[in-house]
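Q: What residues go here?
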């Protein structure tokens, strides 16, 4: 999860989030180089009295500053499209989890098992135990296995919500009457926090998401305890 005064992203816990972070660094470097070049040219124009009429009117210069931005856009677009297709690709999922947004809590259903569903409410500050996080802890965590492809089916029963877990690179809108799909796979066990990222009413800030990712053996033990 995020730390105080943190400027960058949270540590990636899924292959998709790792790709998104690489793409962010790639794009940020291009933006930094363009900004430095523009700042240098502006400084040069403000501090020198020399002008080169032949240079300013040259067709070669106009050709370069027309083609170069197009090349830069291609260098940004190609990795972006690759990640978009990776995020939309649904391979054979090992598990399907349906998530429904409500005002103001989440409900979950493991569709591969009978009668395995529950609601997840934010834990009030007065009920927090030592070490639990205010406004981020819930009464029922979502337990999922690591290193397995999981299909998320996300919808809503009232207004627009958004199911978001930054560490996993997942942000999918929950829209009434529409079933959205996302892929979830983690590379290491841990507890990952998220929140609703769509303004959905008075208690929008009190819809946390907590995923507990465990090895398959521990997930099977949790299933036996729940069923």
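A:
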């Amino acid at each position: 999860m995020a730390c105080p005064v943190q400027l960058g992203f949270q540590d990636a816990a899924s292959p998709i989030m790792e790709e998104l972070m690489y793409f962010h660094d790639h794009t940020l470097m291009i933006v930094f180089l363009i900004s430095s070049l523009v700042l240098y040219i502006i400084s040069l124009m403000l501090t020198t009295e020399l002008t080169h009429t032949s240079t300013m009117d040259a067709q070669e210069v106009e050709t370069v500053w027309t083609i170069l931005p197009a090349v830069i856009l291609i260098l940004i677009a190609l990795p972006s499209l690759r990640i978009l297709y990776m995020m939309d690709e649904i391979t054979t999922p090992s598990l399907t989890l349906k998530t429904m947004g409500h005002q103001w809590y989440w409900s979950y259903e493991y569709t591969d098992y009978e009668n395995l569903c529950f609601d997840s409410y934010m834990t009030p500050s007065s009920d927090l135990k030592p070490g639990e996080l205010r406004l981020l802890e819930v009464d029922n965590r979502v337990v999922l296995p690591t290193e397995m492809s999981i299909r998320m089916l996300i919808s809503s029963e009232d207004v627009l919500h958004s199911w978001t877990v930054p560490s996993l690179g997942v942000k999918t809108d929950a829209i009434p009457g529409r079933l959205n799909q996302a892929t979830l796979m983690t590379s290491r066990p841990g507890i990952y926090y998220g929140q609703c990222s769509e303004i959905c009413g008075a208690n929008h800030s009190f819809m946390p998401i907590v995923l507990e990712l465990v090895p398959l053996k521990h997930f099977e033990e949790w299933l036996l305890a729940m069923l």
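A: Context that may help when evaluating the design: The chain is about 35% helix and 25% strand. The radius of gyration is 24 Å.
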